[in-house]
Design a protein that fits this description.
Blueprint (H helix, E strand, L loop, with lengths): L10 H4 L6 H15 L3 E12 L5 E6 L4 E6 L1 H5 L10 E11 L4 E11 L2 H17 L17 E6 L4 H13 L3 E6 L7 H14 L12 E6 L13 H8 L5 E5 L7 H5 L2 E2 L3 H8 L3 H37 L2 H32 L8 H18 L3 H45 L2 H6 L4 E3 L17 E6 L2 E6 L34 E2 L2
Parallel strand pairs: 3-5, 6-7, 6-8, 7-14, 8-9, 9-10
Antiparallel strand pairs: 1-2, 1-4, 2-3, 4-5, 11-12, 12-13
Helix pairs in contact: 5-9, 6-7, 10-13, 11-12, 11-13
């Protein structure tokens, strides 16, 4: 007979170990973690989510499977990139299980983009997103100041970039430079660069311990896309776009383009070119000022000549005040003489009119005096005198204006002559003689410019700083040199001390 199946609870079933749910979950967790203690997983990021606790939850997927993943708060803060939906990455970490839902997941410790193509895609997506926010709009960009008094430079203090910038600024127009030292590559670079830009903007405009720059330059040398990635970070781009101080970006070489270039007010192809954009050429400014001064002097001279012509015309129109007074006196004399003549004629006519009763001489004289007084009252000198006084006052006013304009012209010309005198003294050959050189002239007094212009036995004059002496070409150079003084051996040139070479001043914060 066949053996019957063992009933439940028989010895066969009783040999299997019995686990609780927690025990079996813990056993699975230990198995998974010991087998996949350190793994690198490549996949596409899907549905990334940062929780209020700071942890980041996401899903890694490919065409065959899906893997849940979590990045704890501490590791999430140290990630070189922030996960975004659709980004292809390589995640490094370990596998574990989540007993609460009977799921396994990956704990991410590090994350990097999977290849340069992914970097370029991320860069383009970020550029489009920031451009849609208006951070790259042309109306946000401000003009670069023509001549900044203080320039702030955000770069590495030890590289060749800062030396190139300082050297070019010293050549063109020396200004006060403040360097904010930062890392320009690596995970910490984005934080340091953004803090430097905001730090310069936070300086008080007046009265602070450190002068606030009029212009900022963010600079770095060339490198690969990964080397320059800090200047593509959103934090750096937003700091550049929000800067109240005009900003020039000079990151990489001419062919390199980073997102900070779009947010800055001006992009320079190289750090040296940024220094050239920042300041003009000092010699060009001096020449332009001299030209403008000459034009202004000519305009003032023409204006003075026009003023003299106007004053001369007004003086001719006023005439001679003394002559006008004499003419008025002459008219008064004529009027008085005519009145006396009329009185005499009337008296003569009355003398012969004996048939007619005539008034007494006293009455005639009284009436005559009344007429004379009437005529005299009509001859007033007051208006003439007032006219003469007003003309003299007007003439004095024009003369004072002419004298003041003449004095101003003399001061301007004196200043110009003093400037030309200083320039002439600076370019005088006597300054060259004071540095130890000598001027050689021939018998006619003409300068000798080369040895080919001299001949043996020729007498020349040598002018030094403190006087002149004469010499004979070739004297004492041969065996029969006439017992001339033996020439002293030439002193070896002393190498210039490094302290003699002017170096631009560099001031460093922090």
């Amino acid at each position: 007979m066949e053996d019957a199946a063992p009933p439940p609870g028989s010895d066969t079933v009783g040999n299997l170990p019995e686990f609780s749910v927690g025990e079996i979950s813990l056993a699975v967790k230990r198995t998974v973690e010991s087998s996949f203690e350190r793994v690198r997983v490549r996949g596409e990021v899907s549905r990334p989510m940062r929780a209020g606790s700071g942890h980041v939850y996401l899903t890694l997927k490919d065409e065959n499977a899906v893997l849940d993943a979590v990045c704890w708060k501490g590791a999430a803060q140290r990630l070189s990139i922030q996960p975004e939906d659709g980004m292809e990455v390589i995640a490094t970490g370990k596998l574990t299980t989540y007993p609460g839902r009977s799921k396994y997941q990956m704990v991410i410790e590090q994350m990097e983009l999977a290849g340069e193509g992914a970097l370029l895609k991320l860069l383009e997506d970020r550029r489009k997103r920031l451009a849609a926010e208006g951070l790259f709009d042309a109306d946000r960009k401000r003009p670069i100041p023509f001549l900044p008094g203080v320039i702030g430079v955000v770069t590495s203090p030890t590289g060749a970039v800062i030396r190139d910038i300082l050297h070019r600024l010293a050549d063109r127009f020396p200004v006060h430079v403040i360097v904010w030292p930062v890392l320009v590559q690596g995970d910490a670079a984005k934080d340091q660069v953004s803090r430097a830009i905001r730090g310069f903007n936070s300086l008080p405009e007046q009265g602070g311990p450190m002068p606030r720059p009029d212009l900022l330059i963010v600079a770095r040398g060339g490198g690969s896309l990964e080397d320059l990635w800090a200047f593509n970070e959103e934090e750096v781009v937003r700091a550049a776009a929000g800067s109240d101080i005009p900003l020039i970006s000079a990151v990489g070489h001419e062919t390199d383009t980073t997102l900070i270039d779009f947010a800055s007010d001006r992009r320079a192809p190289t750090p040296t070119a940024a220094a050239e954009m920042a300041v003009p050429v000092r010699t060009d400014l001096i020449a332009r000022i001299a030209e403008d001064t000459a034009r202004l002097t000519g305009a003032v001279s023409r204006r003075l000549n026009e003023g003299r012509t106007i004053v001369s015309g007004l003086a001719r129109g006023l005439g001679d005040p003394g002559a006008r007074i004499e003419q008025a006196q002459q008219r008064l004399d004529y009027a008085s003489g005519t009145s006396l003549s009329r009185i005499t004629a009337l008296l003569d006519r009355l003398k012969y009119a004996v048939d007619r009763p005539i008034p007494s001489p006293a009455e005639i004289l009284a009436r005559t005096r009344g007429r004379f007084d009437t005529v005299a009252r009509g001859l007033r000198v007051g208006p003439i005198e007032r006219s003469v006084v007003d003309g003299a006052r007007e003439l004095d006013r024009y003369l004072r204006r002419a004298e003041a304009a003449y004095d101003r012209r003399l001061k301007v010309e004196k200043t110009r002559v003093d400037s030309l005198e200083k320039l002439l003294n600076a370019n005088s050959f006597e300054r060259v003689l004071e540095r130890g050189f000598a001027l050689v002239r021939d018998e006619s007094g003409a300068p000798v410019k080369s040895a080919a212009e001299t001949s043996a036995g020729q007498t020349v004059s040598l002018r030094f700083r403190d006087g002149e002496t004469s010499a004979v070409i070739g004297a004492g150079s041969g065996p029969s040199g006439g017992g001339g003084a033996k020439p002293k051996p030439k002193a070896k040139p002393t190498p210039a001390s490094s302290s003699d070479t002017p170096t631009p001043t560099q001031e460093t914060l922090f």
